[in-house]
Design brief:
The complex is a heterotetramer, with 2 copies of chain A and 2 copies of chain B.
Chain A lengths: L3 E3 H15 L3 E5 L22 H4 L4 E3 L4 H12 L4 E8 L7 H8 L2 H4 L9 E6 L14 H6 L4 E3 L4 H13 L4 E6 L6 E3 L13 E4 L4 E5 L3 H14 L4 E5 L2 E3 L3 H11 L2 E4 L8 H12 L9 E3 L10 H7 L3 H11 L1 H9 L1
Parallel strand pairs in A: 2-3, 2-4, 4-5, 5-7, 6-7, 10-11, 10-13, 13-14
Antiparallel strand pairs in A: 1-8, 6-12, 9-11
Chain B lengths: L8 H24 L16 H8 L7 E3 L5 H6 L4 H9 L33 H14 L5 E6 L6 H13 L3 E7 L2 E2 L2 E2 H4 L6 H5 L5 E5 L3 H16 L5 E6 L20 H8 L2 H11 L5 H24 L17
Parallel strand pairs in B: 1-2, 2-3, 3-7, 6-7
Antiparallel strand pairs in B: 4-5
The chains are: A alpha/beta, B alpha/beta.
The complex binds thiamine diphosphate (2 copies) and magnesium ion (2 copies).
Chain lengths: 340, 327, 327, 340
């Protein structure tokens, strides 16, 4: 009785089920219905909100292109009894409403010593691969993970997309929910009844004893591919998918590294002040004595995302680089690498 | 002063007491500030009391306001506890926000006060949100967003006007044009223009209001709140009232103000004095009643300052609480 | 069509050729897109040609424009090389931005084209900057900021109006109200209002312009550019012209548009047809001249597409260049 | 013939000298003149632009509170022949204009394959200590360092403030220039003639053989204090001040760690995806075999900045925590620590 959904459908199902479950959940963003104010038909929404307004005509709204206002409205609505799910479309557009995220959503609770609760979800599509160029392909979650007061969620599979979205909506803190645009049409088993994947619990996507690969978002599948290649060479990799990067289940990572002695972190973001370095540094500080070789990070280069496919494909890290990084941290293989 | 509907006696007393409380609070903070016990950035509201008072006395306890960096007046008018406010400004345990917020972040969600805000116009979108919340929950609560003339140039303010117009939110935008944004004059940064036409351009009804006349503000606010409450959508009030003090305590010498400007303001445009004269002339209140209120307010503020000065610092364990509900 | 000053013959030919080039370019990209060789997001300008053309034909080569995500028309009208543009859209070596920008980021600083922009209204503040630059350097260059009706709701646009008014910048804001922001109608997101009053509220002269009538646009633009060039400050033109295609190639089925709307547009509101009819009627141009231009343009676009299809990908070494001048 | 200036005066002197030197340098921001449009006197500027307009009346401007517009204007002006120095006041206000920094300033050159040059400086006041609360006390440079296309400069002394500002203005890329509000009235020797401190060159603030302390901004002075304390115990610390964190002179750090075998990074920013972790991870990856103990990071906690002095002082890292961290990474002392 398995049921296969796309990642996009899984997010949509979570939205529908949570709206069913809790009348305080509202959903809005540009074209979340699609077609409001036109003479044609409603429903030209793109993505997981498609069709939602038919079920909940009073709780799904289109917005004008006013991210600062409507993300701020999500904060104000969250602080006064609703559970808004606001849609940024591309995470790159966080630029035009960053104050409302950084200085309002993230800080309202702390500044009022706990009087405010801000249970909002901000949906944000991220990542390279769709040939959208530098302003529509960024990853940016390191920026949000840096900000105290925000939670940052990063599902890698359809099943997690559904369960994490449900958890994000039920959570009492502001959550930035990252949806990788290249994962939308990936498929996987997704149980039909509502369920929650708790925030802050990593998933061991593949067990292994020789090297820990912590992989984020779209890199999880790449790490699994890399693990297949390496298994053929006799290196058994453990692939850890943190699923949420704030909170971060660092204990599961420490445990894994204590067993494997080696760490590679694979992250699609650019390298400086990113999550790859963040996790690598935590391990180098708190599990240093478990390390039997240098930590290795696999990231995009310190450059904007290029438009043309030839360059964009070279930009995005993938299984090959992960394989190379694993070999480079395991002394025997590092030797081979150097020799070859 | 033109004629405006006269509130009943209890309301008149409430209006006067509110304005006097704000004034006394601010004058006292101004006096205490150089003593060095008040930390941080404090922006005083004295001179503008008629605006917060005229607006907030037509709101219910359930209605929402979002305020600015110059927020003491709004908080007091919305009913926040004055002693807890003073404790907050001093950064003490028992402060309205546990000492973690300070003057620029005073908030009291229980009273619909969604917070002062350190970012110009930063609170305005929040007001759109509380207005949306009321609308979706089907209550008749109204939201008020306060913003300064300088803050009204922010993109977040312009976008909020659009969103409120499009969603027909139950909201009142109250611009407080006090002539200055820090040391920059509105003659420069607004080109001497009113803000009202910016709302009208979006189909939002707007009015320019004499911000020294509490009854004028009150009447305009009552109409706007009534419109919002009955589903008529947003309104903007563009209230004119200069501040008595500098931009921020300890910061500016007000060299940018015309010579004698503040003296003239205090002599001729003091909302409290204007109201008192009228109340006495028209026999709404007696001299004795006014004196009684003044004395009671003074005692209240004395008490607040005493409490604040003798209160303890927050416990160090508070440093890491309230970042999240759960983490 | 109302009467507008008639440009001289060379100008008339230039106007027609420019509009035809944009149209042919866009129709051809539309035809090629499903073939799968054009990567990414492409937003076509067909239907709005009179706006870019009317505005840019009164500019000099040194003047600046900042464009939007729907930028091909502006780039062509500002004189960008059509073949290099096509190469860019295909992501090829030799593209106007080396294939690193694509349709949404076409720019040509040598021709004063400061770039298409993937962020709604993102380019508008840049225009304030190029206008400031001209002012400080003491040249008489003018800047034009294009923005869509949807983008005009962005805070960055509102703030740019304020800054331009306050600094009295030599700038013309050209709003292209094409009835839609993605699938959302202006009847919703602007409440059916014009954008012009938003500028007027700041003291910026503004006009609503028939965006299907290239001579109307040109006349309004000439006045605005003249004002800017002579130190008279900013102007806003609110041009109305719907697009022929969907928001983005491969994205929408245009279910949100009224039945028959696009057919009607093409039949009755085609700026090229309207211009050609007038030009023939008033004997500005002959049928033969028009046919000749059409043929030349078609050959140009054929050539551009051929070049683009046969060009090479950028070299992989380009990945890490141009992040910084020095690092 | 030594001359002592405050950090604030040093920044101001650089602005004046660079404006003198290059007529394309313009300066603007809120109250950069101060008093425009008022009936009183001009010149109520606060900070390093005070008085500048008297020397350059046509090149210093006040702005309305329109950060998105005027930061964007800096980008447009930079791309068309000027060298603007725009003033954000508090770096926290980057929230309201982040798109213009992230998506315009940082990417214009790359997206146009090098056709654009964006020589702008964005001045940004940062840091805790002035009891300004959560929205006026942030550090945030990790966010900017994350973004390819931006340069991030962080002077710790008056002399560097002057030389780095001159370098930033002459640089052809967009530079975010961080000025610590609590350093403004610190004093130091500052040569009078114009000079440049090149971007991307670390400074060894104090040599030492036992442990490398990389310290950022205000933490440099704290690290020096810590080094004094530790010297008394016989631990000689080398204090490295990177001065710019993008570009980052990582080679100087590697060299130092190769000599000392130990690394502590002291950073006032919050810990997640910060510069402390960034540097720690780079060392754990590229100088791993030089490490003779775990890397240690000293940062603010993962929390907004509290208002009240009692909490703000506890929030900000300082010499004490640096001392503790150094002891904890040196095995002999780490043992003592554990025992004590
Ligand atoms: C986005 C932003 N930019 C700049 C500041 C710095 N700042 C604080 S108050 C102020 C002036 C605000 O003027 P106005 O809105 O008229 O309010 P007033 O102080 O006159 O009450 C400025 C520029 C800020 N807080 N937020
Ligand atoms: C800040 C921002 N928000 C959202 C988007 C996504 N988006 C791209 S185009 C568009 C519609 C723009 O409408 P309009 O400005 O009217 O231009 P048109 O497409 O009609 O030419 C939207 C919402 C964006 N690019 N930037
Ligand atoms: Mg003001
Ligand atoms: Mg449009």
């Amino acid at each position: 009785m398995t049921r296969v959904l796309s990642y996009l459908q899984a997010v949509g199902e979570a939205l529908r089920q949570e709206m069913q479950h809790d009348p305080s959940v509202v959903v809005f963003g540009e074209d979340n219905i699609g077609g409001t104010g036109c003479d044609g038909r409603l429903g030209n929404a793109w993505g997981p909100t498609q069709g939602l307004h038919e079920h909940f005509p009073d709780r799904v709204f289109d917005t004008p292109i006013t991210e600062a206002a409507f993300v701020g409205a999500a904060v104000g609505a969250a602080a006064t009894g609703l559970r808004p799910v606001a849609d940024l479309l591309f995470v790159d557009f966080a630029g035009v409403c960053f104050d409302q995220i950084l200085n309002q959503a993230a800080k309202l609770r702390y500044m009022t010593a706990g009087k405010a609760r801000v249970p909002l979800v901000l949906r944000a599509m991220y990542g390279a691969g769709m040939r959208r160029g530098a302003q529509h392909s960024q990853v940016l979650y390191p920026i949000f993970a840096h900000v105290p007061g925000l939670k940052v969620v990063l599902p890698a599979t359809p099943a997690d997309a559904k369960g994490l979205m449900a958890a994000a909506i039920r959570d009492d803190d502001p959550v930035i929910f990252f949806e990788h645009k290249m994962l939308y049409f990936s498929h996987g088993e997704v149980p039909e009844p509502p369920y929650v994947v708790p925030l802050g619990q990593a998933r061991i996507a593949r067990p292994g004893r020789d090297c820990t690969i912590v992989a984020l978002g779209r890199m999880v599948a790449e790490a699994e591919k890399a693990a297949d290649v390496l298994a053929a060479e006799g290196i058994e990799c453990e692939v850890v998918d943190p699923r949420t990067i704030s909170p971060l289940d660092i204990e599961t990572i420490y445990d894994s590294v204590r067993r494997t002695g080696h760490l590679v972190v694979a992250d699609e973001a650019t390298p400086r002040c990113g999550v790859a370095g963040d996790i690598a540094a935590l391990v180098a500080e708190h599990a240093f004595h478990a390390l039997r070789g240098p930590v290795r990070t696999v990231t995009a280069p310190h450059a904007p995302v290029p438009f043309t496919p030839a360059l964009e494909d070279a930009y995005t890290p993938g299984a090959d680089q992960i394989v190379t990084a694993v070999r480079a941290t395991i002394p025997a293989f590092a030797g081979q690498e150097r020799a070859s | 002063m033109p004629d405006h509907p006269r509130p009943d006696r209890a309301e008149l007393i409430d209006i006067y007491r509110t304005m006097r409380t704000i004034r006394e609070f601010e004058e006292r903070v101004h006096t205490e500030f150089p003593g060095g016990e008040i930390p941080g950035a404090v922006h005083l509201y004295a001179g503008q009391e008629a605006v917060a008072t005229g607006v907030c006395t037509v709101l219910t306890g359930d209605d929402y306001i979002a305020s600015t960096h110059r927020g003491h007046g709004h908080a007091i008018a919305k009913g926040c506890d004055v002693t807890a406010m003073m404790l907050e400004i001093y950064g003490r345990a028992g402060g309205l926000c546990g000492g973690k917020g300070g003057s620029m972040h005073i908030a009291d969600f229980g009273r619909g006060m969604l917070g002062a805000n350190g970012v110009a116009a930063g609170g305005v979108p929040l007001s759109c949100g509380s207005a949306l919340s009321a609308k979706v929950r089907g209550t008749d609560q109204v939201s008020v967003a306060f913003v300064g003339d300088g803050g009204a140039n922010q993109g977040a303010f312009a976008e909020s006007l659009v969103l409120a117009a499009v969603w027909q939110l139950p909201i009142v935008f109250v611009v407080e044009d006090n002539g200055y944004a820090q040391a920059t004059g509105t003659r420069f940064h607004l080109g001497g223009k009113d803000i009202a036409p910016r709302a009208e351009a979006l189909g939002i009804p707007a009015a320019v209001v004499d911000g020294y006349d509490v009854l004028a503000v009150r009447e305009a606010a009552a109409g706007a709140v009534q419109r919002a409450r009955s589903g008529g959508g947003p309104t903007l009030l563009d209230c004119k009232a200069h501040r008595f003090f500098g931009h921020m305590e300890g910061w500016d010498q007000q060299a940018y103000r015309a010579e004698g400007e503040v003296d003239r303001l205090r002599a001729e445009q003091d909302c409290l004095q204007l109201f008192a004269i009228r109340a006495l002339e028209d026999e709404w209140l007696t001299t004795a009643e006014i004196a009684e209120i003044d004395a009671a307010v003074r005692a209240l503020i004395d008490h607040a300052v005493e409490e604040a000065k003798s209160a303890k610092d927050p416990d160090i364990s508070e440093l890491l609480t309230d970042v999240y509900v759960t983490y």
